[in-house]
Amino acid sequence: MARYTGPVCKLCRREGEKLYLKGARCLSQKCAVERRSYPPGQHGRDAQFRRGRGSDYALQLREKQKARRIYGVLERQFRRYFREALQRPGLTGSNLLSILETRLDNVVYRLGWADSRNHARQLVQHGHIAVNGRRTNVPSYLVRPGEEITIREGSRNRTYFKELAAYVADRPPAPEWLGVNMGEVKGTIIRLPERRDIDIPMNEQLIVEYYSR
Q1: Residues 6+ apart with CB under 8 A from 108
Q2: How far apart are CA 144 and CA 181, in angstroms?
Q3: pLDDT recorded at residue 14
Q4: What pTM does this model have?
Q5: Which of 38, 64, 86, 107 is most buried, taking the most CB atoms under 10 A from its CB?
Q6: Where are the domains of the chain?
Q7: What is the per-residue pLDDT for 49?
Q8: Which CATH class is domain 103-191?
Q9: Closest Cα to residue 135, out of 144, 146, 123, 145?
Q10: How many angstroms separate the Cα of 45 from the Cα of each of 13, 42, 190?
Q11: CA gap 213, 201 in Å, rounded
């Protein structure tokens, strides 16, 4: 299963904004964007002063790269998601974000069970998450309305999951399209997410224009 394994703080610096790829570290003084607000690389400081509006293509590319990096998706899979978004009724850009939001690793993150999408991906890959009672270790699994996400029975005795309620209290609340029952450590997919439910500052129309060239 392919995934990016390099330093993620460089990705935030390249995009010039926080992508919140390292959880709590992104909110601390150790955040790389706070300490070094210029792009990575030997000529990063020079690029900081040369950075202008850029061409239309550059803006489209950067928005596409930002979306990929936020959700931890490589190019081939991201392109497949775009093709699927094209086939759905409605706005292609909103459909694309809805597909990305319904990835299992993102759902685990949105439920507050992980402090970043990378952390959520790890929980899924290690077999700690169950969908409708069945162990599911595929982070890209797309959840559907009515499905239930739980911590696998064999994992509930682990220290992290015993203390999960305390961690969730310090994390952003789950969006409206998800139902959460921390007493049973269970999440429910109420409906598919809409654009108003997605708090990521992104111009998805630029992504549509990028793939429509």
Answers
A1: 114, 120, 123, 124, 129, 149
A2: 18
A3: 61
A4: 0.83
A5: 107
A6: 8-100+200-211, 103-191
A7: 46
A8: alpha beta
A9: 123
A10: 11, 8, 46
A11: 23
Cα(34)–Cα(37) distance, rounded to whole angstroms? 6
Q: Which amino acid is at 192?
A: L
Residue type, position 145, single letter? P
Domain 8-100+200-211 listed as CATH 1.10.1050.10:
yes
Q: Report d(CA 204, CA 213) in Å as an integer.
A: 15
In a 13 Å sphere around the CA of 22, the CA atoms on its Cβ side amount to 18
- Counting beta carbons within 10 angstroms of the beta carbon of residue 43, is it exposed (0 to 12), middle (13 to 18) or buried (19 or more)? exposed
* pLDDT per 10-residue tile (average), the chain, 213 residues: 62 60 57 59 54 78 91 94 96 96 96 92 96 96 97 92 86 92 92 93 94 90
List % helix, strand, coil for the chain (3-state, nearest 5): 50, 10, 45
Q: Are 201 and 97 in contact (CB under 8 A)?
A: no
